[in-house]
Amino acid sequence: MRRGCLAVVTALFLLAFSAPAGAAPLSDLLGSSGSLGSSGLLGSIGEEESYGAIDPTSGTLIATSGFDVKRDGFSFENWGGPSPEHRRGLTPTMMQTLYGDRICARIVDGGCVLTATGEALQVDLNESAGGGHCFGFAALAGLFATEQLDKDVHLPSGQNVYDEPASDRLDGLITRYASTQYSLPTSEASKRSSVSETLANLEAAWARGDSYLLGFFGPPGGHAVTPIALRDLGNGKTGIVLYDNNFPGVEKMMVADAAADSWYYTTALNPEDRSYLFVGSPENQLLLFDLPQTAEVHECLTCHGAGDDSVLVLVKDNAENRDGTNIDWDLGVTAPGGGEVQGIEKLAMINNRQSELFRVPAGVAFELKMGNVPAGRAADIDISLYGDGWINEVDGIKLLPGATTSVTVDRNQRKLSLSSNLSITPTLRLATEQASWSVAAVGSGLRVLPGSTLSVERELDGDYVYALDGIGLPGSMTLDVRHRDAVRDKNVTSGGPVSIPVNSSASVAADAWDGATPLTVRVSGNGVDRTYPMTPIS
Q1: How far is Cα 118 from Cα 218, in angstroms, rounded to an integer?
Q2: 3-class DSSP state for residue 82?
Q3: pLDDT tens digits for range 57-79
Q4: DSSP-derived 3-state class of residue 288
């Protein structure tokens, strides 16, 4: 399946969902940057307008990068999730090239063993790439073509990119470049550009032997491509010839009008076919991304001491309609109880998966409200918080028609609380780093009923605390903990369900666990005080 995709960290983002009643949408919270899913930045597609695909050899050549789609482009198309042809995404080795040695707990025989937080991040990035790898295709093809990345290191000596078939190694490399958009320096390497600025920047870059990655948004989603030539089409129109990784081995053309600051791109010969149509305007401008920084080591999202103390929040839906399109549902982000989230910054994602990425300053509480799933559908939502040396995730939130689910993060950003008007059974993931080790815990099987609230907290003393408050029946959870350091892994499990009555909590001293001393789960509150010894597992 061809996948559109766009996911890069800028002040611009594809908003795939609107807000439920009573919740301010992200577009209202982010000021003038707006929402690509609302009426502004996607531009309007007038029914009276005619948009048809243009022969990419039309007109007169103005400038070229020298890129040949059957030499410098890939011979296989952009893909989404794992398939028989594309079995592998980010590997520990690719995570190491992306974030450096600090993402490794240890290096054994030259191979990186990821920290517990790094391993959790790897899973998230691979899942997010299920929305498409177009950013990775466009970045890697551009770097190879401009000789800013040595093909001989990654491909058989002397072989063209087009001659190289899909492989596990190449899949990992493309996914690595697709994942650069989440953090510095790539996250700040984009610029919104008018048509005239885009044309001038492309021509100047090609003249100096450089190029750009071109990103754009529209009703099909977002997409990233490699611009390769400019052609004068007459009547003030310029054709931007593209290598579109959804269509290997052929050139495509975007039609741009500098005077009107407008553009459109379609691959449909029938102007009435708008299934793959992107239309631009002064409100929906093109995005140019510098290429060189994508090859650099990036700021680690979850490594202790990397970056500032702000929290990066990723919300993604793993479900889709039967035809592969996204399920529509509502997402609102407010201060707890309503009102604006101070300092929130929405970030762009070039990705066709239903997703949101935003950054919240340290010391700011916020609430996410989700609902309004259409009849006959169900969303499958993961919410991930990335901080300085930690990850807190709630995965597998099944959002059914009629459900309204809320996730609240406290001011210290150590506690995440979940409630819903329909029962849900999420998977709870926590991972943290110490100076000499890292720890990850996975809690599963705990059913949250209407009227009760589940919270997951990283306490200052090193405890992971899972609390169930409100009214309703007791819950039970299986808990697995992994300690990873420079020498070994140590894994333990509760071995069975840990019973948690309403208005009580289960705590485990996971963050401070050295991997050697015994570890127990303690349940206390509401007249209960019981311990569950954790047992080693291989």
Answers
A1: 33
A2: coil
A3: 999 999 999 999 999 999 999 99
A4: strand
